[in-house]
Structures are given as structure tokens and as C-alpha cells.
Specification:
4 helices; single chain
Length: 90
């Protein structure tokens, strides 16, 4: 019966996401890859003895990390950019 309750909960969450306009693909990816990504992040930090510079150690890793950070903060950057352009136009 636990499986049925779990299915109902995820169905309600999926319906709410659809009604609010949230895309479902990122949530599915997060559920599938989240544990593995967290485990590998911990291994990288342990291997570098806590040094975050390991994520910028070469151009490929640094580029991907930089791109990920840029996309993470893109909504904030876009809002600030629009506010700045709005002030200049006035």
C-alpha cells in the first residue's frame, strides 16, 4: 500500500508542477542523478583535501564549472541586467 500512497503523492506534485508551469524534466533528472552527483562531489572534495580549486584545475573542468555557475545564477543576472537597462533608458 505504501507504493500506492507514494504514487499519489508524486502524482499530486506532478500535477502542481504542471499547473504552475514548472518543467518536469529537471526534476526527474535531479531525482535520478542527484545522489550520484552528491557522492562524486564529496569524493572530489575528499580527494583534494577540501580545496575547491579542484573544480577549476584545468580548462575543461573550469569551463564546465563556470558554465554551471553562470546558468545557476542566470535568473539573478537577467533581473539585474534588466534593472540596469531600465534605469539607463529612463
Amino acid at each position: 500500500m505504501f507504493d500506492v500512497y507514494l504514487m499519489v503523492v508524486f502524482g499530486v506534485v506532478g500535477y502542481a508542477f504542471k499547473k504552475l508551469g514548472y518543467p518536469l524534466a529537471p526534476m526527474v533528472l535531479a531525482l535520478v542523478l542527484g545522489d550520484r552527483a552528491e557522492e562524486n562531489f564529496r569524493n572530489a572534495i575528499k580527494g583534494s583535501q577540501g580545496d575547491l580549486a579542484v573544480f577549476f584545475s584545468n580548462s575543461l573542468v573550469g569551463g564546465l564549472t563556470g558554465l554551471a555557475l553562470f546558468l545557476l545564477f542566470w535568473p539573478l543576472i537577467r533581473t539585474l541586467w534588466r534593472a540596469l537597462l531600465g534605469r539607463r533608458a529612463a
